[in-house]
Structures are given as structure tokens and as C-alpha cells.
Write a structure and sequence with these properties.
This protein is an alpha/beta fold. The chain has a single domain, classed as 3-Layer(aba) Sandwich (Rossmann fold), CATH 3.40.50. The protein has a five-stranded parallel sheet, sandwiched between helices. Strand 3, helix 4 and strand 4 form a beta-alpha-beta unit. Helix 3 packs parallel to helix 4. The longest helix is centred in the N-terminal third of the chain and has 14 residues. The structure holds 1,3,4-trihydroxy-5-OXO-cyclohexanecarboxylic acid. 1,3,4-trihydroxy-5-OXO-cyclohexanecarboxylic acid binds next to loops. The site of 1,3,4-trihydroxy-5-OXO-cyclohexanecarboxylic acid has 10 residues, from loops.
């Protein structure tokens, strides 16, 4: 199977950015962990990170018919980007939304996800392990969206 691991804005700053919230490990380390977990489950994991909404929209479009699932941490786009929600709604590729932190236990604006309805599941507050949980969910073959 082919899986896209996608991280949105500011996640390239993992390891530097608010380590008390997001930990000390880098994006490269996260990607290595998910690639390894994928390999152990017969999945090829492609990694993509961008700080630009349009680039993320186009990456989602490119998964249509080409990819079996998306593991996606949309960062702050989670809370307001209808363009990314609609991008996920434009393709048949199932997506699991991931948050490293527990977004429900932080500022109120983080409790809202406009992306979740276009996803088949949401994983939050599990640190980097949440990305592997997301792969497990995709491998279960869940296709019904939350919205
Ligand atoms: C995040 C939570 C978001 O609220 C925040 O804007 C991020 C990271 C997380 O992984 O916990 O950039 O998605």
C-alpha cells in the first residue's frame, strides 16, 4: 500500500517549536518513525510538509487514484481552512487527521476542526505515536467519513 504522510504549517519546526507541547524530536525523526512503521506493515510512506495552503491542496488532489490513504496533521489549518477540507472532499483517498497535542485541552479555538468531517478518523494527544495509530486505522480499511 502507498500512504502519504502530510504535515502542515510550522511542523517543520518540531524539536524547536514549543517543546513542552510538541516534544524535542524533529520532523525528520517523526518521518523516519512512520516510514519504519509503514515498512513493517507493507506500506510505502511518502512524506510531505508545507507551510503553504495551495501546495497542500495540490498534494491532496494528487493522491486521487494514486495513494491508499493520507495521514495528515493540518497544524493551524485544522481550525479554519475550508480549502483543505474541500480538497479532502474532492478525492476518494481516506484521510486520518492527527494532532500531536491534545487539542481539546488547550485554547478553545483548537477544539474546532473544520477538517475532521472530511476525514475517517481523528487522533489527538498521543504525541508522535498518534501517526502510527492513524496508519493502523487506515489499514483497518475505514472509509466512512466523520462528517
Ligand atoms: C497541532 C495542533 C494545532 O492546534 C496547532 O496549530 C499545530 C499542531 C498538533 O499537532 O497538536 O500546529 O496540529
Amino acid at each position: 500500500k502507498k500512504i502519504l504522510l502530510m504535515n502542515g504549517p510550522n511542523l517543520n519546526m518540531l524539536g524547536i517549536r514549543e517543546p513542552g507541547v510538541y516534544g524535542n524530536n524533529t520532523l525528520a525523526e517523526l518521518e523516519r518513525q512512520v516510514i519504519e512503521y509503514g515498512a513493517a506493515h507493507d506500506c510505502e510512506v511518502e512524506c510531505f510538509q508545507s507551510n503553504h495552503e495551495g501546495d497542500l491542496v495540490e498534494k491532496i488532489h494528487a493522491t486521487h487514484g494514486a495513494c491508499d490513504g493520507i495521514i495528515y496533521n493540518p497544524g493551524a489549518h485544522t481550525h479554519y481552512s475550508y480549502a483543505l477540507r474541500d480538497a479532502l472532499g474532492s478525492v476518494s483517498t481516506p484521510c486520518v487527521e492527527v494532532h500531536i497535542s491534545d487539542v481539546d485541552a488547550r485554547e478553545p479555538f483548537r477544539r474546532i476542526s473544520v477538517i475532521a468531517p472530511a476525514c475517517v478518523a481523528q487522533v489527538k494527544g498521543r504525541g508522535f505515536a498518534g501517526y502510527c495509530d492513524a496508519l493502523d486505522i487506515l489499514l483497518e480499511g475505514v472509509t466512512e467519513r466523520l462528517g
